[in-house]
Amino acid sequence: MHNLLTLYNPYYQDDVIEQHVEVLQNYDSQTFATVAFGKIRSKLRDYEHPFEDRLQEIYASATEEEYLQLFLTDYSSIYVAKVVEVLSNDCLNIAPAYYKEKGLDVENWFIISDIRRILSNDFEKVRDTVLGNFTAPNFGHHHYAIYGNSYVYPLVVEMDTNIDYFENDNEDFRYFTEIYKSERSLEVKQSLINYLFEEDAFYALHPNSQDAIISAEIEFQDNCKDPLYDFTGVVLKLSKAFEREVYLFLRTLFERIIREDFSLGKIQYGVHKQEYLLKEYKNHKPNLGTNTFLLRKFAIKNAITDSIKSIKVRRYILSTIPEAIEAVKFVRNESAHDTAATLKECTQLRKRMLGIGQDGVLHDLVVHKKYM
Q1: What range does the domain containing 269 cover?
Q2: Are residues 213 and 112 in the same domain?
Q3: Within 10 A of 223 (CB to CB), how many other CB atoms are there?
Q4: I want to staple 110 with a disulfide (CB 3.0 to 4.6 A). Which of 37, 61, 284, 328 is the partner?
Q5: Please, what are the averages of pLDDT over each run of 10 residues along the chain (372 residues)?
């Protein structure tokens, strides 16, 4: 998957993102909604893009299945768009009206099928959390620099930690439908950061995990005084966040031990009755139980013991993670397949996942990942 970064200038239109989202939201079918985002030709640039050939290769590769991620920022806020096609011909019919009204000179049209907000009105967090994760391969592979750079946009970027911002288990879900979070969501997010996660740990979670945790917490708070409420939704959201973070943690761990011993890449595991090798773990995510199976394999345990020098971190990987997996499996499976999740079950899982009165599993996963 390719990633591009470009700047949007409020000078041309002060509500650029809002107008593009409005086009998407006004479609009869959100599943097939698209909007054209135009890259405006700079009046200050009288030369061709120095990496135009590379850009054209990336543009030509963009499809619904192999989409490219286009990051849009004014440095105060940053959004990411799912681009399924890039065109040079006129796309005014699916673009906001201001392009035509102002006679803007568009170099290329990025056809967007979804967009999500990453951060809003927080320059320091945009700089440190998102832009700080980017390197510019066409500019010496150095980390993105806001000041003193010679970048020409769109800029090809790579991520230190790869994030697919449009990964979702529900194929019909579109992020643009919920792009502007309610004040309640923002309040709950800030409360989680202040009292349970701390800022760095919370933003180290995958964006989908962040959303799931916030949604679960709102649902729990709204219904925790009703002992007859079905808390299955809360349990499944917290479980999904945990499953995603365990996968990302172990993906990093397994890549490390395979680099140190290539033979480990041949260890087999199953996903939906298909057999894969450990070196394919990145592209074939197993279920939670399979992760426990892998961590208990003799060769993997030995490799972790040899590779991870900290006894505390080794204990966390080999004992704490499997214990948490088994606990989550028990509650989740019971809730999903047999009876409704009770307030007691939900409360216990919530305490364990978020760290209420004890160490938080989700917090510790991202903290220990730094040692990988």
Answers
A1: 183-371
A2: no
A3: 17
A4: 37
A5: 91 86 86 90 74 94 96 96 95 93 92 94 93 95 92 95 87 84 88 91 91 96 94 94 96 96 96 93 92 96 95 94 92 70 92 92 91 80
